[in-house]
Amino acid sequence: MNGSSRTTRGAVFGSAGLLVGVALLSGCGSGDEGGSKDSDKAGSSDSAQAQSPAEAVQATNEKTTQAETAKIAMTVTTSGGQAQGKKVTGDGVMDLQDGTSKLTLDQGPNTIEQRVVDQVLYQKLPKKAAEQLPDGKTWMKVDLGELQTRGGGNKGLNDPAGSLAYTKSLSEKNVEKLGTEKVGGTKTTHYRVRLDLAKMAKGDAAQQKKLREQLGDEVPMELWIDDKGMTRRQEIELQVQPSGAEGGKKQKVKTVVELSDFGTEVDVQPPPSGKTADMTDQAAKGAKQSS
């Protein structure tokens, strides 16, 4: 049983690192309902260029989610402690409005199929790890909404129903324009953003304190936004406390997410319930131990 807990808990928090990048690009429709695809297409590159850096970053939330869906590619690199040099890559599709997604994740010889449906994370583990699941199950699941309720999730960071809505409250001093670059053949403007943890906590002092303990005083993020105002690449770097390493050295987790093929079809279903083991309790306990 202890071996099973360690194995599945590790899988959960491996996925949590990946969800950091995904979450910041998903569920953006939860804030504002305004806008349409037609109004997005009507936006010109001239109007985008006329915006200040802060205005461009604040507007990308609505512009990107108006596309509804996209293909996604991501890379998560961990450094520090025993995780030094670990790298996970993934690609798949995502609904940008509600966070529904399907990804194939690769770490060395191991491949994990990951789905998020209705704020529930599902992972089909590699064969050796799946042997540790109870009753011969092949999929594990974690209810991310329940995890957040129980203190195992960061609002706006690893909840796929969260959003980029915090960008609307950024001031000019939080955003720096770095220049222009091509991402996947598309011309973009590169911005550096520093997230304000006080604003992310939305006035919740306890949540702000927890965010600072987990992430530090500042969270650096970089965005590449195209001439239509849509996010093409996002890079975020976090200092996180690894599970089971209380008092140990924090690890640096760098997540890079790229979006392309906006409007692509996204059809994701949860795996059969008979093949799924609910690991939400283990994930919540592991999160509390690492907080």
Please tell me about this protein's structure:
There is one protein chain. This protein is an alpha+beta fold. It has a single domain, classed as outer membrane lipoprotein receptor (LolB), chain A. The chain is 29% helix and 33% strand. The protein contains nine helices and twelve strands. It has a twelve-stranded mixed sheet. A hairpin with a 2-residue loop joins strand 3 (101-107) and strand 4 (110-117). It is globular, with a radius of gyration of 19 Å. The two termini are 23 Å apart.
Could you state the order of secondary-structure elements as H and E?
HHHHEEEEEHEHEEHHEEEEH
What's the end-to-end separation, in Å? 23 Å
Mean pLDDT: 74
- Shape-level CATH architecture: Clam
Give the helix/strand class: alpha+beta
Instruction: Summarize the amount of helix as a percent range.
Output: 25-40%
- Total domains, how many? 1
SSE topology:
Elements: H1 2-23, H2 37-42, H3 45-50, H4 53-65, E1 69-79, E2 86-95, E3 101-107, E4 110-117, E5 120-124, H5 127-130, E6 139-143, H6 144-149, E7 175-183, E8 186-195, H7 197-200, H8 205-215, E9 219-226, E10 231-240, E11 251-260, E12 276-278, H9 280-290
Parallel strand pairs: 6-12
Antiparallel strand pairs: 1-2, 1-11, 2-3, 3-4, 4-5, 5-6, 7-8, 8-9, 9-10, 10-11
Helix pairs in contact: 1-9
Short description:
This protein is of the alpha+beta class and 291 residues long. The protein has 9 helices and 12 strands. It has one domain (2-290): outer membrane lipoprotein receptor (LolB), chain A (Clam), CATH 2.50.20.
Can you tag this structure with a few keywords?
alpha+beta, outer membrane lipoprotein receptor (LolB), chain A, twelve-stranded mixed beta sheet, 29% helix
